[in-house]
Design goal:
Blueprint (H helix, E strand, L loop, with lengths): L4 E6 L2 E6 L10 H16 L5 E6 L3 E3 L24 H10 L5 E5 L2 E3 L1 H4 L6 E5 L3 E3 L13 H9 L1 H10 L2 E3 H6 L5 E3 L1 H18 L2 H13 L6 H16 L2 H11 L22
Parallel strand pairs: 2-3, 3-5, 4-6, 5-7, 6-8, 7-10
Antiparallel strand pairs: 1-2, 8-9
Length: 275
């Protein structure tokens, strides 16, 4: 029984709801463990084709749990070489997912509440959502691999402004700077995310999605387009010889929904992962 999240699986979509409404879904180590377990399950279960994550109540996630007051961020400064922040552990697990993940940001998303969404593939926000990289206002530094993700998503200038001021900003500002792809009414938030997830689940090959998702993220760090060409060549050579490619072409000409059979749990190419 999960303490901090709820999971619902329907129509090939896993919906994860951060569920600590009395704490505005604040992030703690139990939530980390339960989210990682849910992502492990999603990767292992071929029925699940896409993941949506949202928050219970009026917040998405209000950041790290500050139950310990001024001692909340106290750590062992003598162990800095071995310490790994919990937000970063979560972000790296999301980065490695085989399934696409959509953040449906329903309310306040600050600190780790927003940085955990950066490795997610699609971010949609409700008009009521507020976001903030508030670390400098708490006397700490950014985490959850945000130093890698944020400048790649919004550019170095806007990333610097948001991080260095630590100010909270609106969903519209997030949209204007491409942190989110859509802003919708609170009532339309989950239906919008579900429509995108359904589009993936009903019309795409699971192995093609897994390969494509990793290609797009991994090539953000490549130092030359030739690296992408090398990986894409392997991917297209392998995928074009598989049953899903034949089904994709056949369903197109027959004007019907495809019935892809390959499973990410057992049918990925031998070169995956390529990093």
């Amino acid at each position: 029984m999960s303490q901090t999240i709820k999971c619902d699986i329907q129509d090939h979509i896993m919906t994860i709801t951060l569920h600590r409404p009395e704490r505005m879904n604040a992030f703690n180590t139990v939530m980390l463990e339960e989210l990682v377990a849910a992502f492990d399950r999603a990767d292992e279960d071929d029925y699940i084709r896409a993941i949506i994550i949202t928050g219970e109540g009026r917040a998405f996630c209000a950041g790290a749990d500050l139950d310990n007051g001024s001692q909340s961020f106290t750590g062992d400064v003598q162990d800095t070489e071995e310490f790994r922040d919990t937000g970063g552990i979560l972000s790296l697990r999301i980065y490695d997912l085989k399934k696409p993940i959509i953040a449906a940001i329903n309310g306040a998303a600050v600190g780790v509440g927003i940085t955990m969404t950066l490795p997610m593939d699609i971010r949609i926000a409700a008009t009521t959502a507020k976001m903030g990289f508030v670390f400098c206002r708490r006397g700490i530094a950014p985490e959850a691999c945000s130093g890698w993700f944020l400048p790649r998503i919004v550019g170095i200038s806007k990333a610097s402004e948001w991080v260095l001021t630590g100010r909270v900003f609106s969903a519209q500002e997030a949209l204007d700077n491409k942190l989110v792809s859509q802003v919708v009414s609170p009532e339309e938030l989950l239906p919008t995310a579900q429509a995108i997830a359904k589009e993936i689940a009903e019309n795409t090959s699971a192995t093609s999605v897994a390969l494509s998702r990793q290609l797009l993220w991994r090539m953000l760090g490549a130092n030359h387009p030739a690296r992408s060409h090398e990986i894409e060549s392997k991917m297209i050579q392998w995928s074009s010889a598989q049953a899903d490619a034949k089904e994709g072409v056949a369903s197109f000409f027959e004007k019907r929904q495809p019935e892809f059979k390959l499973k990410v749990s057992k049918d990925m190419p031998s070169f995956y992962p390529w990093w």
